[in-house]
Specification:
Number of helices: 15
Shape: globular
Strand content: 5-15%
Radius of gyration: 23 Å
Number of strands: 4
Largest sheet: 4 strands, antiparallel
Helix content: 55-70%
Number of domains: 1
Strand order of the largest sheet: 1-2-3-4
Length: 375
């Protein structure tokens, strides 16, 4: 597709996170920052940032991706699989990316990291399920005297206490015991990324929030010693949006984790309106969507020249906060006000084209491996 045949640039001020779309971890440099969102008429469509770095995005169907650029094999297959997704969410996109990497489409390094991450996810679900059950036991199980284990008289038989707890809770939920056990398993899938006490800090989204905080601090410190006005302004813009994201991220994460403070109420809600639980727990993931790549790019840049180029690239990747984010804030502030700037590729850097392309593809595959290693 020649530049003269491109669809017209459209303004990009989404109202909701779904309208904003989900960041897709493409490895093709020309597709950096691309997001996917569902549509009623043509399935999934792409939102590709203006390659000039200015305002607006190009919107096109998935079928047109090859007319925009020559995608890598990884991105071609990614395109095909995401086009068939029923729900386009950060979790579903991440799952597809993990599957492709495990198949070796993002290189050997990413394949090994993805296989390890897949096993880690299974273990994390088991741990989350255990902590959910223990939270229920702690809140309800006091009704049942703790009995010693048959194999070790000095150790409490938690499995017996857990069974008694589930048997006592289930009729009060109007459900059989098997439903309660299944509900706890389903909730472990939903809440695994935000964590359940006492393992909240080690879960993926709390760790990503901590990483973003560290990157923002490092970036701000680097910006303070720069002399170029445009570069300093770039740093200020990214840090301002990061600050707002960190604040909203911490707030929504705490609200999601607080659901387990009343396990009976959580199970009752899950029985009648599971969608509301999923939506609440997913808020921090929507807020942080796209920031992992930014953190990886910044950490990968070591010297001044690399960080200078990284800052230009990052400025084009900063997620636009939709108006919906303001509804998630306790202060009711306008969460979009920090995004009212003109995105421009400053400092005469063009990092998507020319001799940098193949080096950037290699780097992007390496970043995929780091992302899955950091699961």
């Amino acid at each position: 597709m020649s530049r003269g045949q491109l669809p017209g640039l459209k303004s990009y001020h989404p109202t909701t996170f779904e309208e904003r779309g989900v960041a897709v971890p493409f490895t093709t440099p020309m597709l950096s920052g691309t997001r996917a969102r569902p549509t009623e008429k043509q399935g999934v469509e792409l939102l590709i940032p203006n390659p000039s770095g200015g305002r607006g995005v190009y919107i096109m169907p998935w079928s047109a991706i090859s007319t925009w650029c020559r995608p890598t094999l990884h991105d071609t297959v990614f395109n095909e699989r995401v086009a068939n997704l029923l729900n386009v969410t950060p979790a579903s996109i991440r799952r597809v990316g993990l599957e492709l990497a495990a198949e070796g489409l993002a290189g050997e390094e990413a394949m090994q990291a993805a296989l390890t991450a897949t096993n880690a996810e299974k273990e994390e679900r088991l741990i989350t399920n255990y902590h959910l059950l223990m939270a229920l036991v702690q809140q309800v199980g006091v009704r049942f005297p703790a009995s010693p284990s048959a194999s070790n008289p000095n150790k409490i038989d938690l499995s017996m206490q857990a069974r008694l707890t589930v048997d006592w809770v289930s009729p009060r939920l109007g459900q059989p015991a098997a439903w309660t056990a299944s509900a706890l398993e389903a909730l472990s899938d939903v809440m695994g990324n935000i964590g359940v006490a006492p393992a909240t800090a080690s879960s993926r989204l709390p760790r990503l929030l901590a990483t973003l905080h560290q990157v923002r601090t490092d970036m701000a410190g680097w910006g303070e010693i720069q002399q170029e006005g445009e570069l300093v302004e770039c740093v200020k813009i990214v840090c301002a949006v990061a600050d707002l994201t960190l604040s909203l991220g911490a707030s929504t994460l705490a609200k999601g984790q607080d659901l387990t403070s009343d396990m009976i109420n959580l199970l009752q809600t899950w029985a009648t309106d599971p969608k509301s639980v999923v939506q609440l727990v997913m808020r921090p993931e929507w807020l942080l969507d796209g920031w992992e790549q930014i953190c990886l790019i910044w950490d990968h840049a070591q010297d001044h020249a690399d960080r200078r180029a990284a800052m230009v690239e990052i400025l084009g990747l900063v997620p636009v906060l939709p108006q919906e984010a303001g509804q998630w804030s306790d202060t009711g502030s306008d969460a979009t006000k920090e995004l009212r700037y003109t995105r421009s590729v400053a400092l005469n850097e063009d990092w998507r084209t020319g001799s940098l392309v193949f080096r950037l593809i290699d780097r992007n595959e390496h970043l995929r491996a780091i992302a899955y290693s950091n699961h």
